[in-house]
TrEMBL record:
SUPFAM superfamilies: S-adenosyl-L-methionine-dependent methyltransferases (SSF53335). The gene is Hypp4769. Pfam families: Methyltransf_11. Residues 46-137 form the Methyltransferase type domain. This is Hypp4769 protein. It comes from the Eukaryota. Coiled coil: none annotated. GO terms for biological process: methylation. Belongs to the methyltransferase superfamily. Keywords: Methyltransferase, Transferase.
Length: 270
């Protein structure tokens, strides 16, 4: 399913251009947890579902080697083409078959993708590749927030109450929409952190481009090929009217907050 949703070349380009970047602060939080039971240097990290590479890059300052994998070949082609980091490599591979040796990885990280996986197979693979004391970190975001309550209401309505409401895959509903609270993990004792967010200032057209990358919208387009972007045009109109601004829509910026939910769990050392 994930390969089908994210395999188009145009989608990879939109993803790379408009998806907000994960921060250095987020990487520091994950690495700090890894270091609690692992002395430096940190050798190997694997970023699962790396997309066009934005998430893999934030690990580069902390590990000698970072491998980003994704089932989408266009995403990996784009990530490789834009890669300027000597210690980061990318490969096409599924989450359930990580192309590294047994017991070789200090961190397996997965951002906004773990909900798509076969969790039984993925968790077994995580256990295979992690060193004793190694860490699995998974995180996601759901439902943007804005300082203006009306913009938040319009965004939530677009996602779950409008024509797109039936286009949410059952795995999104079960795992992502519940903020991974019922996500199967390979070990007990998971640490949950909800203290961070991705904050970004976007023009309304940039925000609309961001929405064009999400899987429920891509599914809506598949079911409604005659829509020709009308759903997103209506969203843009509603957001612009709600701001009450007279600035051109291309210049008006909105502050968008994406709350992060992070789960980290450690492989037993014995």
């Amino acid at each position: 399913m994930s390969a089908h949703l994210f395999s188009e070349a145009d989608h990879a380009e939109l993803y790379q251009k408009y998806r907000p970047k994960w921060s250095a602060e987020f990487a520091e939080r994950v690495v700090t947890f890894v270091k609690e039971k692992k002395s430096s240097p940190l050798l190997h990290a694997v970023d699962i579902g790396c997309g066009s590479g934005q998430s893999s890059e934030i690990l580069a300052p902390h590990f000698q080697h970072v491998l980003g994998i994704d089932v989408s070949e266009p995403q990996i082609v784009l990530a490789t083409a834009n890669n300027k980091l000597g210690n980061v490599k990318y490969r096409v591979a599924p989450a359930e078959s990580i192309p590294v040796p047994d017991g070789s990885v200090d961190l397996v990280m997965c951002l906004e993708a773990v909900h798509w996986f076969d969790h039984e197979k993925f968790n077994a693979e995580v256990d295979r590749v992690l060193v004793p004391g190694g860490v699995l970190a998974v995180a996601g975001t759901i439902y943007e927030k804005f300082p203006q309550d009306e913009l938040t209401r319009i965004s939530h309505q677009f996602h779950r109450e409008g024509p797109m409401k039936d286009c949410w895959h059952e795995k999104l509903v079960k795992y992502l929409c519940t903020e991974y609270r019922n996500l199967p993990m390979p070990y007990g004792g998971a640490v949950r952190d909800e203290s961070m967010s991705i904050d970004v200032d976007l023009t309304i057209p940039q925000y609309i481009k961001l929405q064009s990358t999400i899987s429920p919208y891509r599914e809506f387009c598949r079911r409604n090929p005659g829509d020709k972007g009308a759903l997103l045009q209506n969203l843009q109109k509603s957001l612009y009217e709600a701001t009450g601004s007279t600035q051109p829509v291309e210049e008006l910026k909105m502050h968008v907050i994406l709350p992060i939910f992070l789960l980290m769990v450690r492989k037993p050392q014995v």
